[in-house]
Structure formats: C-alpha cells, structure tokens
Amino acid sequence: MKTVCIDDGTLQMFLDGESPAELTDSITAHIDACDACAIRLAEAEEQTAVVFAALDRDLNTLVPTHRLWDRISESIETERSHAPFWERAYAFISLQLLSPSLTAAAGVLVIAVIAGTVFFMGSGDNNEIAELNVTQPQPAPQTVIEPRVEAPRTVAVTSIPDSVADLERPAASQNTQRPVAQAARYAEPRTRRAVTPSEEPRAMTLQYVPGEESYIRTIDELNASVEMQKDRVLPPSSRIAFERDLAVVDDAIGRMQQVVRRNPRDQAAKQVLYSAYQNKIDLLNSVGQREELMASLR
Amino acid sequence: MNRIGAKLTLALLAGLLWPYGSALAQRPMPPVPRVPRPAVTAAPAVLADGESKLATAPNVNLKFCISDGDLRINGWDRNEVRVFVRNGREFTLKVLEKNSAGQPNWVWVAAETDGPASRAPMSECLTGSDVEMDVPTGATLNITGRSTDTVIDSVRKASVKILEGNLALRNVDGGIEAAAFQGDITVENSAGAIMIESTTGNLLAFDVSPGQIGDLFRAKTNSGAITMQKVAHRQIEANSITGSVLFDGGFLAGGIYGFKTSNGSIRILIPERSSCNVTAAYGWGSFNSELPMKFTYRNETSRAKNLAGVIGAGESCNLNLTTNSGSINILRPETSKGP
C-alpha cells in the first residue's frame, strides 16, 4: 500500500523540528518507505542549509534588550560624572553656541576684550617698550633645564658669564635693533641614560656565592671608615705595608672571583676566596684597632 | 587706568622682591673674627729617676700605659710590686681594689697628674729611658704602650698592646694576648691560651703549650712571618697575608690546625710517623709532601686546586691549609735543616 506523500509544509515543519512526536514518527516511517519524499527531504535540507548559512551572521547578532540599554545609560552617566570640569564646560558652551544670538554676543565680548587689551598696552610709553624689547637684553635665567630622555632636542638655558656671553652674541652688542631675549644654547641631549628598572644595579645576589655578599658588605663598610682614618692613623712605613697587603689581597680576591664566577661549585676556589675576604677584613680592621689604641693612649 | 596699571605693576614687583628680601633678612651675620687664644702648653715635665714599692696580693693585677722607653718586667717570689723609672716622669702606685685580706689586688701605675705635666699628652702614661718592674710571679699584667720595646718574664698572665716596638714574653704560664702593630712578637716557654698579632712584624712562638684542654693558639700578621716551634696546642690558627708560615713540631691527637697565607709559603715540618687528615686549597700555588700521603681527592685541573689526603693513619688530627698563590710543603724535619 502506497501512502500519500508528505506535503511541503509538513516536511518543512519536520525539518525545523516543530512537528509533534506522533507526526515525526509517521514522517520518519514514510520517508523510509517513500523514495520520492526522501529525495524531497534531502533537497529541502540542502536549501535550508544554504539559507541558514547566509542568514547565520544576522541571526547571531545580539538584539539589544532593555537591560542592555539600561547598562549603556548607566555607563554614560558614570562617564559624565567622571568627566573633567573643562570637558563639561566645553560641552555646555558648545551647546549654547548653537543658538545664533548667543554666538553673536560671545563674538562681541571677545572683540571687546581684545580692544581693551590693546588699549591698555597702547596707553604706556612707547619708548619704554622699545627700550625694553630692543636695547636691554634680559639676563639669562639661572636655571639649567635638564634634558629629558624623551625629548630629541632640548633647549638648555644657562647663565653665561658676561665675557662669554659677549663672545657668543657679537651681533647683539653691535646691532641694538635685534632683541636678545636670553642667552640660549641648543644642546644635543646629554648621553646620560635614563635609569630604567632594567639598568638598575643587577641583583648581585644572583652572582654571589653563598655568604659572599655579607663579606662584601662588611668590606664596603670598613673601607669607608678606613679611607677616613688611614692618613691619620698609619705612619708612612705602615701605610706602605698596608697598601701593599691590600693590593695582594685585592688581587687574590679578583682572581678567585673570576674562578668562582665561572664555576660556582668549585669548593677550593670558594675556600680561597673566603679566606681572601677574611684577610681583607682583618687588614681593614687593623687600621681601626690601631686608631682605637691610639685614642686610648691620648 | 594708568594708575591701576601702575598699582598692579607695583604689587607685582613687590611680590617678586619679597623672597629676595626675606632671604636677605635670614642671611647669617658675618663671622666675627676670633681672637686667638693663648695656646695651653704643657709645662716641661721634670724628668728624674724614681722608684716605688707596694706590697700586694700574689695574684695582683697590674695595669698601666707607657709612652716610650724600654720596659722590662720580671716576676719574683715576693708579694710586692717594685717600679723603677730612669730619667722619666714621676709616678705613683694607685690601689684600685683590695682582696678580703686587705692586700691590693688591683694596682694602677700612673704618672703624676697633679703637677704641671698633667696637661701633656698621654699624661697618665709612664715615660722614661728605662722602666723596670718586679712583680709577683702570679701577677696579671694589662699594658698599653706607644713606642716601647718590652720584655716580660715570669708572670702569670699578660695582655699587651703596643703601637711600635718589639715584644718578648717568656715564662708566662697563664695565657698571653699580645698585639704589636709595628713590631715583632716573641713568645717563649709559655702556656695557656695564646693570641699574638702584629700588623707588619714577625711572630715567633717557641716551646709553648696549652694551660688546659681547649686553649687556643692564634697567630696573625699581615706582612710578617709566623714561626711556630714546639707549639703543643691542640688548636692552632696561623694566618699571614704576605708572610710565610712555618710550623715545626708534632701534631697531637684530636688537634685542629689551620694555616693560611695569601701570598706566602706554608711549611710544615712534622715527624714521619705523624698521622693527620689533610685538606688543602691552593689557588695559584703548589702542594708538595715529602711524607707518604694517600690522596682521597685531588683536583688540579681547576684554577683553584685542592686536595684531601691522609698522612699516616689519618684519624689523629685535622690539618687545613689554604693559600692563594703560595706554596705548601710538608717536610721531614731533617730535610729542612740546611748544611
């Protein structure tokens, strides 16, 4: 028995998944038995695929909901409240200037301000202005503008001695019509490098062997005090011996540091290095002990 | 308008000049030239021979400082302190403390400070061409000095610090602590914990021994040589930077010996039947042992060479040798003797 073929609407409903369960079962059973309907279903599937592919972009676009609009409005209000005063003032003025009458009034006000300024400046003695602007070179400010790293070129305004200033501006001294406002030199940016975190002293602890850093710190502290004491404390003969011993120890430290840096596991090098550090500490301490004894004998 | 402009200009100028005027007002007054004060000059000290005696406890503690002159201190079998100064400043024996029997057990030998010489530098220090002292053999000495050659013999204990001059200590059986910043130190036939230190001088210790178990012998000099002969301490540390270290004696069971130099040689003369564990680190230096030595570790490929080995049975003592560019030699005593 051949059943009646499925019409297009029912077939589309089946494809869209909108058919009821009983109908879906009967359609499935019919398609299994009817080649014509199976072909029509396949064609309908292809057409649906093409159409949905074309509409996919539009279908996936979010439709703004009320909640979204509310959030947008909140953000705008927040931005408005955080906006600086000048922006708000500018927005207010811009809004007001849309009115032709207010624009005309603002123009009149600007012209009045300019006219008043010109009047005030013109009321003084013209000769004074000429003298100020032409014949009196203003002294250079006593400041040095440090060049900043970001600026490719920097104007360094420096105080220049009179003699040097005269040499640098012969035209100004001869031709008084040419105003010299200040002595300025255009200097190339200094080669001083900006201190960036990467150029800060490296974490030397990474290079030290364990315990070395404390030795170095102690030596630095002792060095600072010995530098102040040794001229006063050590007589010439002792001073010579001290400097010689210090050179020997420094040499030993330097050589052993190289060895240890190359191979931090070299126990012998570390032992010799520590011994040299200790020698240096003892040597520097001896100056302090001598100073202490001298003080006790005074 | 001109008036207003002028007023504004004046106000602006006043504002600009205000900081300058404030700075002028705060500028310090020019310094008043000081009237030179007459320098306080010490009256010339009266130099003469002087002698003083004081009955003390047998274990008296004697302290003093000496500015210059040869100092000789001898122990004697009397409970008395005698001080003689030749051609020097007047002095006095001040009792700082007495024991329960009423005997002075802490005495300060000080120059007279009541006279005109009281303002002189080191006014409390003894001075003279010769200073001689006789003290009880049980005395303890505490001495500081500037420029003096010192000999101390037969006392219980001595602590001496001098800036310049040689120092010799003999028969001190209760321990020595001596420092001569510019001079040699010799310790002979003494006992106890011994610490001798010099900056530029040589150190010599001969026939010394510990007073009790655990006493340390330590010798340290920057540019002098250290010589130890018959040092019987079980713990010895000797360190010289540019000088050499010589040890001539025997190692004791349980001893810990550490000899270090930076640029000097280390020579160890020990009997052939000695027994010791040896560890040595010598950077650019060398190592040589005349005694049979069994190496447990030896690394001479690195710039910093080191080794560990055993002399004899090895369980007797620990010998640690460190030098940067010096040589290490372990020798038989007869080998080192010259022709």
Describe the overall structure:
The complex is a heterodimer of chains A (298) and B (339). Chain A has twelve helices and two strands. With 298 residues, chain A is mainly alpha-helical. In chain A, α2 crosses α3 (35-60), α10 runs parallel beside α12 (267-297) and α11 runs antiparallel to α12 (267-297). Residues 58-63, 124-181 and 186-205 of chain A have low confidence and may be disordered. With 339 residues, chain B is mainly beta. Chain B has two helices and 26 strands. Chain B has helices at 2-26, 333-336; strands at 48-55, 61-76, 80-88, 91-98, 104-111, 126-136, 140-147, 150-155, 157-164, 167-172, 176-182, 185-191, 194-198, 203-209, 216-221, 226-231, 235-240, 245-248, 256-261, 266-269, 276-282, 286-289, 293-299, 305-311, 318-323, 327-331. In chain B, a hairpin with a 5-residue loop joins β23 (293-299) and β24. The model of chain B is unreliable at 23-29 and 37-43 (pLDDT under 50). The interface between A and B is large, with 39 and 41 residues.
